[in-house]
Amino acid sequence: MMTNQTENHHSSQKNKRLSDLVDIKTLQEILDAFTTTTGLMANIVDVEGVSIFPRKGIKKCCKFCRIIYSLEGGKNRCQAAYKRAGKQAALFGEPYIFRCPSGLIEWAAPIVLNGEHVGTIICGQVLMWEPEEFFWIELRKMNQAITDDFEELFEAVEELAIVTGNQVQASAYLLYVVANYIMKAGWENFEQSREFARQRTLYHAEIENRKTREEQVDKTAILSLIDEDEIILQLQQNRNKAKAYLEGLISGLRYEARQNPTQMRAKMTELLVMLSRVVNRMGLAVAPFLEINDYAISQIYQTTSLENISVIAAKSVDVYLEQLEASAVKPENPNILVMTDYIDNHYQDNLTVEAIAAAACLSPGYAGRIFKDQMNMPIMDYVLKVRIDKSKKLLLNPHYQIQAIAKNVGYEDAGYFTKVFRKFEGITPTQFRKVHKR
């Protein structure tokens, strides 16, 4: 029972996200324009197959659909089909063409946010061929469970458009790209608004804390909030504690800036420079952190919004902590270093545990045990990670085709490479390239 409640809650969160984040009016206008231009009906459903629009909100709905929906059980049958088709489309990361329970052609294009399937575009129904005798027999058989009056259904079928496979694919891809672009923009706006609100909450909490402290401390005492030794101490804690400390530092510095953007920029810049010095004192390579600073500081000086400056600084802290975690994964066993170096230099080859173990003069069993103990992952998972990391860099270059990238990182089959990439990243290589398009 608890599992069902959890699943239902998770499902309702997805549905809420879809309806809350998307600009419903804009999507409705796009679907209306699509229908007017092509004569094809388009709808958007949640992960359960239920339309996010009121039924009367769809500008055009084919007569066949209206009849099916009016029959007992027809609506539920359609929604179940949309749910299944949406899952299949999300699984493959591309539009999915299917036959609806009533025997006509439809297609589903997945809406994906942060690797999570949150909804589906459904388009159809259409015919892809001129109906013949067998089609009418099959149509009657597929719908006999919900009606025994087929005359009106047959008349409605004759009003449907006959489209080619190319037209189906083109219209599906068009709606897929447009809707996902709008959803992504809506999600980013939602995340930014939520982060703004969080930063404001932290700032107001800091104001109250400061009021209390200033009543208790000698007003002539001048103390710096930024203390290198304290930052090092905090960074040695777990990530959540370190993040809470640094975000508190950002709120404190904002308070000291007294709502002055110029002072706020200077204080955030000082904090980032201090963090890079701390990293250097910790004995880590400072170059990746300087890149973080360069980007963040350039963003800070392009805005006058205090909330924006706070958010940029907070996101930089997140990146710092991620980089610190990555830098901290250093194998103590020299045999591990030999194996990781071998993988880094031969990831394009058909690697096996035996070959990797042999490079360190170890047995496969022993090599696998010590590797997992030190690196917290099996050897072949590390191989996959290296290949995916390399492929992501290549995907940023639009001149490389997916097939070439797959081969470059050790996969002869581009389809298999796509499945592996999607498993690791939550999106396909093509989607990754679109999201990170220069």
Strand and helix layout:
Blueprint: H1 2-21, H2 24-38, E1 42-45, H3 63-70, H4 74-92, E2 96-99, E3 105-113, E4 116-126, H5 133-143, H6 151-157, H7 165-216, H8 228-235, H9 239-257, H10 261-281, H11 287-300, H12 306-328, H13 334-346, H14 353-359, H15 364-375, H16 379-395, H17 402-408, H18 414-425, H19 429-435
Antiparallel strand pairs: 1-4, 2-3, 3-4
Helix pairs in contact: 3-6, 7-9, 7-12, 8-10, 9-10, 9-12, 10-11, 10-12, 11-12, 14-15
Description:
The protein has helices at 2-21, 24-38, 63-70, 74-92, 133-143, 151-157, 165-216, 228-235, 239-257, 261-281, 287-300, 306-328, 334-346, 353-359, 364-375, 379-395, 402-408, 414-425, 429-435; strands at residues 42-45, 96-99, 105-113, 116-126. By secondary structure, it is of the alpha+beta class. The chain starts with a helix and ends with a helix. It has 3 domains: 10-190; 224-328; 334-435, Homeodomain-like (Arc Repressor Mutant, subunit A, Orthogonal Bundle). It is globular, with a radius of gyration of 28 Å. The chain is built from 19 helices and 4 strands. It has a 4-stranded antiparallel β-sheet with strand order 1-4-3-2. Mean pLDDT is 77; it is low at 1-16 and 216-223. A hairpin with a 2-residue loop joins strand 3 (105-113) and strand 4 (116-126).
How many E-type strands?
4
The major pleated sheet works out as:
4 strands, antiparallel
Order of helices and strands: HHEHHEEEHHHHHHHHHHHHHHH
Mean pLDDT across residues: 77
Structural class, from secondary structure content?
Answer: alpha+beta
User: What portion of residues is helical?
Assistant: 55-70%
Supply the number of helical segments. Answer: 19
Straight-line N-to-C gap = 48 Å
* Count of individual domains: 3
The side-by-side strand order for the widest beta sheet comes to 1-4-3-2
> Measured on Cα atoms, how large is the radius of gyration?
28 Å
Low-confidence stretches: 1-16, 216-223
Shape: globular
Beta-strand percentage range: 5-15%
